[in-house]
Amino acid sequence: MSSTKKFWGVIVVFLVFCFGFTLFKVFVEENEYTLYSEVVEVNNGYGYKIMQGDKILVIQEFIPSLPGQQAFTTKEQALAVANLVMSKLETGKSPIILPSDLTKLKISAIVNN
Known about the structure:
This protein is 47% helix and 19% strand. By secondary structure, the protein is of the alpha+beta class.
């Protein structure tokens, strides 16, 4: 094998290694900063957690902005509010859930008789 072929072979291997390392580093760093949610079961329903990597940012066991301590009645409700909170966090807004947010998501208080 000529020295020119060896030289180009080494260059190609080096470039492939650098490209692979860069992709790996971007993937690892992206996962450390990516927000995701988990629905959790609580005594009388569901709540949610917002995570960033393995760090818990928010644990919400009750419907925010409603009086008392009412859990979400369905996983879908908990997930919808968790997604809204993540959206607010990702856009730099306050993650506080207002009663108007719950109205838009069609989530209301359960009236016990």
